[in-house]
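Model the whole thing, not chain by chain.
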Amino acid sequence: MKIRLPLALTLLCLAVASGAMAQTRTATDPVADPAALYRSFGEKAGLALLMDDFVHRLAADPRISDKFKNTDLDHLKSQLTEQLCQVAGGPCHYQGPDMAAVHAEMGVGKGHFNALVEDLQKAMEARSIPFSAQNQMLARLAPMHRDIITQ
Amino acid sequence: MRKQNGFLCSLALVAAGTVATDLARADTGKLLLTGGVSTVEGAAGGGISPWAVIGSNATADEVGASVNISRLKTRDYGLSTYGAALGLHDRVELSVGEQDFNAAPAVALNGLGFSVANGQHIKMTVLGAKVKVAGDAVLDSDTLMPQIAVGLEYKSTDAGTIRPVLDFLHARTTGTDLYASATKLLLAQGVLLNATLRYTNANQGGLLGFGSAAPGRDSRSLQPEFSVAYLLSRQLVVGAEYRFMPNNLEALGRAAGLGNALHQDNWKDLFVAWAPSKNFSVTAAYVDLGQVVPGVTSNRRQSGLYLSTQWAF
């Protein structure tokens, strides 16, 4: 009687963990298929459309829009497309300035960063990017917070 | 004491409300569900175990608040909880929780000479403080380093006509749990893991007092707690928790010839949490408290449905 629920819990945990692992392993295993994430974002064309939506959301987001008021949005779009293409394992090479240099004087706080991540999540949702692929992309981008958040 | 607790609670809720209306800035805050939900003791985390995350929507330079109501019904008991938490700069969390436990089966103790009133409720107030000391559960996705927090929960129990029973057991009516938590979101896999280590001598979380006369255990012991959660979508999470509990009173019961009457089990649950917006989430869970004073409940397992709602600012 007493072992039933702990057993069920253990099985649930194992199922959840292996389910999550299996999903990532077959869908986008960076070892077996380094370009899998790139493909699930619709390759370069898909990323360009995603970044177009994303940049519009940033410019319209009252929490962070003032950070972009002097930005050339088209230029930003193509830089981001190149950057995410590379991060996703695509055949691109981002040659723009590094994240620390770009954001050094912007006074970006954690709240601004989280707002941007939210806007990216909403843009990915709008383009029906599978949730697992969304999280894999975020996982690759998240460590950039150390260079971007300065306060 | 009860009036004081009620006043404290109202004060906390008013404070939370005031903070919420004054500080719309907390809206920029955390990503959905990364503040956890509210535990039955008021701290942010899962349902029965605190996590290293700091509650509310507030992030680094913000202040936020959350309020929570929950209800659990088991075979023989009922538990209602009310909580409020203040999150400061995503570093410090202050919380207050009120538990209202319907201990009606305790009236069976009158056969031993006690005078427990019909439908007696046990109430417990929990004052919590938690400090994040290292790491970021969400953004440090390129390392296994978890977010780590340490906390305490000061608990004060009002057992009404059950008080003489606690006195007889030498179970105190106040106690402080100390804990440390490590929380990690494996972002690429969408899996959240938490481990909490609690240093406590609370019986049934404090509802049956703290400690015990010999040969029961009076001193605190280390009790681990585990949570695992899987993100199904940005707004939906499923998970499970397992909370080891001390079993301080059983030996005393046995020595008194009552067999396993005062045996205590570990707590566990399976839950699903849905957050349609940053300000509101609802959690449903199947909770199993195991045996709770089996002596007056014929060893029946106390499990049932738990429902909780949280408003966060």
